[in-house]
Give the backbone structure.
Amino acid sequence: MKKLLLAAFLTSSLSIFAQTEKGTWMIEGDTKFSLTGATSEFKYNSEYTNIETSVGTFEFKPAVNYFVEDNLAIGLGLELSSKATESEVNYEKLQTISATSFALMPQLTYFFGSSSPRPYLGVELGHVTTVTDDGENEATQSGFGFGFNGGAAIFLSDNVALNLGLGFAGTNLTDRDDDNYKVNKVGFGMTIGFGIFL
C-alpha cells in the first residue's frame, strides 16, 4: 500500500511539474466587466446641484506563452478595453465620454517550484493606443505601456490553472495631433484569470 501511495504521489508531482517545463505552451485569458455609479450634491447660496456619474468598463486580455526553460515562459499578450463615462447635472444629460484602448505587450513570466498553488512573477512591456470620444471631438494617444504582476497559479487539473494575483501597470502616452499633450497613468489592482497548459 505504501508503494502504491508513493507511486501515485510521484506521478502527480511529475504531472504538475510538466505543466511548466521547457517546451510547454501556456494560453491565458481574463476578462473584467464593471459598472459603477456615483451621485454628488453641491450647495452654493442655497442652490443645489446634483451630479450623477456612471462608468462602464470592459477588458479582455488573452496571451500566448512558450516555456523556453523550466518554469520560464516568454509570450505575447493583447489587451483590449472599453470604458464609457456618462454624466448628468440636475438630471439632465451632460455628456458621454468613451475610451477604447489596444495594447500589444511582450511578456516574461517565471514560476517558482512545482507544487500547486505555484507562485509566479511576471513583467510586460509594449505599445498602447487609446482613442477617446466625447461626441464632438475624438483624440488618439499612443506610447509606452508596462506592467508587473505576481500571484499564484492554482491547478484545477493537469492542464488548467486559476491565476490569482496583484498587478501594477502604467502608460506614458502622447497625443498624435499635439506632441505637447501627454497622458501618464498608473494603477494597481487584483488580477483573476485562467491558464491552459499544452
Summary: The two ends are 32 Å apart (CA to CA). The chain is about 10% helix and 75% strand.
